[in-house]
Amino acid sequence: MRTSPRTVPDNDIIIESRDLEKTYGRGDASVEALRDVTLDVRRGEFISIMGPSGSGKSTLLHVLGCLHKPTGGRYVLDGIEVEDLTDSELSEIRSRKLGFVFQKFNLLTNEDIVHNVALPLVYAGVDLATRSRLATEVLERLGLGHRLTHLPTELSGGEDQRVAIARALVNRPAVIFADEPTGNLDSETGTQIMGVFAELNAEGRTIVQVTHDRDMAEYATRIIHIQDGRILDEETVANPKGRGEGGS
Amino acid sequence: MSWIEAFRVAIRGMFGLKVRAALSMLGIIFGVASVVAVISVSEGAKSEFMKQLAAMGADNVMVQSRDFEGDQERIKAARKTSRGLTIADADFLAAEMDFIELHAPVKGLDVNVRSGDRKVTCPVVGTTPSYLEVKQFRLREGRFLSADDQKRNLRVCVIEEALRDELFPFEQAVGQNLYIDHEPYRLVGVMRSKETTEKKYEVVDISELNRTVYIPLSCSLDRTPRRTLSDEIDEVIFRISEPSRLHEAARLIRAHYLRSHNMVDVESENRDFDVTVALDLVRQRQKSEEIFEWTLLIFAGISLVVGGIGIMNIMLANVTERRREIGIRRAVGANQTDILRQFILEALAICLFGGVLGLFAGIVFTWWVAAITGWKTILSAWAMVVAMAFSLADGVAFGTYPAYSAAKLDPIEALRYE
């Protein structure tokens, strides 16, 4: 991993993208999923990316989350220039700096929840005892301390998503990415989960979520609208939900 | 990801497959089992071969007279040119050729033997003192025939251990008398029996050896019905001093006999003798056994390859089914090497497990073969090591491609898999 000499004029910017492009396929069959995406995210911000299906919002999340490489433009994540890193270097960034929460939870069904939460630490090279301790701590914080040895299939959807959030938190990431985190939950459970995100953000964590649900988007401090692979506009949420009386 | 963690995941992965993993293990199990069994059986055969060689004397050249299966016409024809195998001939050769270290003429007798009132059926052989060393026999008690016995034509005999146990199980054997053709022979020694455990490996009829009675050659010639050719014998055994010149010696000995028997060539119809090298006899047997062994090992190898293909098959299915898991692991930070290692270790776990089962199956199969056939078998550690090494190599060779295809999956596409 290299640090770009041109970056970090403002230490508070954690995601800095300039004219990001992502094209799938080649020649006539190619699809431009992202075009000229320029976006800054400050440390401690909670961003919602909104747009209709096919607008490229998931693609943007995958590129920002280092799961796919951009085909053009520049992307600096926490001071690291990402666009020409190798696959193995991207894996290391995911393991040390990022956390993911997915719509379908994506837990390992044959492992208990402690093992699921500890999984990112396995690939970060943390020893077994520390892994179990950190995973247990995070699970207890999210109110799952009594379920440690359960399998994901034995829990409710809301609990599973809490496990997934715990997994995203366990390596103390710089950014948490969430892809439609409430999409598979009923509205009440969804609200609870968004409450968890709001709480985490209030503690100072940077969160980027993708959603098509206006209600859920308003837990963020800023909403980015995207269509046809381009940023349409953005709005600042005056009074983000889930922050109690005074807002953020 | 640490190796221990990787191995834990691999074992869990393997048990997740259960029945299919067990089925794909079969090839490995059979392969390993047959390697172990084949090598165990052939090791047993080899040790028998060594004993066999020791029993016959590896460095001996044996010249035996042919009896033409009693065909009187042919005997007569041979007699026209040849006087048969004689002591004089043998002594002449031994004196002339420096590579002959020792030689022992042997004359078999068809006579009855009695011990007290008891009639004994056993071979009686007349020979000289050098026989003991030529055949590498050892004495159990007493002494062997001596030059003095020979010269003075003394009526003495030496018997073998097995016969002693039969005739004199409780009393001192040396000093007793045996009646051979109604004449008393004083027993002067007992020879230690040679280890000849099995009939399967017999090249010459050595089962009788352990019951043979030996008397001085001079006495045995006396026993022969008085024909004109009184110094004719059945066999001469030559001990060759340099093992490397064994075949050269055999050729020279054959040439000498051809000349002295007035034969044109080895192919002569009337050739009344055979020259054999003990080593060759056993080697021939061993060679055919080796071919058999290699054939079996090739089948074992094919079984291992088929087993490997089975493992590749199940691992490919496994990778397809677990795409989502691969996607999850990649998303939280696993790199391609981590995934590659995970699936190779899983293939190895199958091979290791199958290999251990195969070892047990091989051991059981070897015992079974030994029990059914009575063959001697030797379970060798190196055979097990080799078999296990091959099965693990199988896992790496056939597990790499599925693991590679798993590692190369795109994380997002893998996550989309239902």
Structure description:
- The complex is a heterodimer of chains A (248) and B (418).
- Chain A has 248 residues and is α/β, with parallel strands linked by helices.
- Chain A has one domain: P-loop containing nucleotide triphosphate hydrolases (Rossmann fold).
- Chain A has helices at residues 57-64, 87-97, 113-123, 128-141, 157-169, 187-202, 214-217, and strands at 13-24, 31-42, 46-50, 72-77, 80-81, 98-101, 175-179, 206-211, 222-227, 230-236.
- In chain A, the strands form 2 sheets. A 6-stranded mixed beta sheet of chain A has the order 6-7-8-3-9-10, sandwiched between helices. In chain A, strands 2-1-4-5 form a 4-stranded antiparallel beta sheet, with helices on one face.
- In chain A, β9 (222-227) and β10 form a beta hairpin.
- In chain A, 47% of the residues are buried.
- With 418 residues, chain B is α+β, with helices and mostly antiparallel strands.
- Chain B has 2 domains: 3-52 and 284-416, no CATH class; 59-278, no CATH class.
- Chain B has helices at residues 3-17, 19-56, 72-81, 87-96, 131-134, 147-152, 161-167, 217-223, 246-260, 278-321, 323-331, 336-373, 381-407, 411-416, and strands at residues 60-65, 100-109, 113-115, 118-120, 124-127, 139-142, 156-160, 177-180, 183-191, 213-216, 235-240, 273-277.
- Chain B is elongated, with a radius of gyration of 33 Å.
- Chains A and B meet through α2 and α3 of A and α1, α11, α12 and α14 of B.
